[in-house]
Amino acid sequence: MIPYSRQNIDAGDIQSVVDVLRSDFITQGPLVPEFERALARYCGAKYAVAVSNGTAALHLAYLAAGLKRGDEVITTPNTFAATSNMALAVGAKPVFCDIRPDTWNIDESKIERLITVKTKAVVPVHFAGHPCEMDEIYKAARRRKLRVIEDACHALGARHKKSRIGGCRFSDMAVFSFHPVKAITTGEGGAILTNNKKLREKILLLRNHGIQKDAKGFNVMTELGYNCRMTDIQAALGLSQMQKLDKFLRARRDVADRYNRVLADIPEIQLPVELPGNYSGWHIYVIHVKNAKLRRPLADFLRKSGIGVNFHYPQVYSHPYYRQMGYRTRLKNADIHHAACLTLPCYPGLGESDIDRVAGLIKKFLLSMRKSL
After folding, report:
1. Quick one: which of 116, 74, 79 has its CA closest to 94?
2. Sorting pLDDT into bands at 50, 70 and 90, what band is 304?
3. Dihedral sign, CA of 21, 26, 30, 36?
4. Could you report the per-residue pLDDT of 162-175, keeping only the tens digit for each?
5. What is the third-level CATH fold of 245-372?
6. For domain 11-242, which CATH number applies: 1.10.260.40, 3.20.20.450, 3.30.420.40, 3.40.640.10?
7. What number of CA atoms fall less than 13 Å from residue 191's CA on the CB side?
8. Using an 8 Å Cβ cutoff, are 176 and 153 in contact?
9. How confident is the model at residue 372 (pLDDT cuts 50, 70, 90)?
10. What angle do CA 276, 277, 283 make, to 5 degrees?
């Protein structure tokens, strides 16, 4: 079975974790701030705060931004549910903007028309690792004094306008995930990056139960916080993985390049694109099956043939929970994407022969469909 994605762990990663298990610190010790510094340095941001997972990172970023009940947050429906779920968690209302038909990222040209007096933030998601048009999004948000929080969980190592995602050149904060299928993994884990010292201090406080030391050195709780701390075990793995991040990115790009070559002559599918001025992290490789009725049969055929495929993503507003909340949203491009998307295997270590096998099976299936029509 070829999975749609998987982690890449070597002996050095394992040894880094073993070393921590034999040390004096296994929860939050000296390796957490070391990992934070490495992450901030790599992305070009002043500060990074490591947390327990990407969802916690979103939650704390929204709280630090001051989002609360009655506020609105403009975001994309083409994302994992956590992006909007955490807006709901702080009492805010997600407002969904349609996506572009090429990158399937939020359509920057449609954001301003959704802004109301209740809008407090814009949360673009770098879908599949391909950067959103952040310069345009930032301009639109700043004209209305809105916060910009990048959901960059797919995009560690990606670049926009020669700046690494996470450097927060066009945002107040950027959020990463280190789930096993991401660019690097800490098992579970996440981080918030920012260039704003006050936001960093707020996030640090929220991460640790709202507790800080007073003038006398006592731990005192000054506001309601959470336990969202990363462990030294996770940080050790993250530091080891960071050393290989650029190699992982090159490998992902090689996979995407080969797919682009071997799938280019199939008229029934639309391939993903990388817009000029952007450098994608290729977290996932997603095609569109132009005849949406063939998407599910093709997926079933590939799975029966030992190919792990997935669907990224059902529109958030289509989930039963959101329907029960009263969302009746219908967005043209998001609906097209939901019906047509198919995620193919993409990860470091995926061989050329594996990619060719996937492509050959896709061609075989679609050829059989042509003959039957």
Report:
1. 74
2. very high
3. positive
4. 999 999 999 999 99
5. Aspartate Aminotransferase, domain 1 (3.90.1150)
6. 3.40.640.10
7. 32
8. yes
9. confident
10. 85
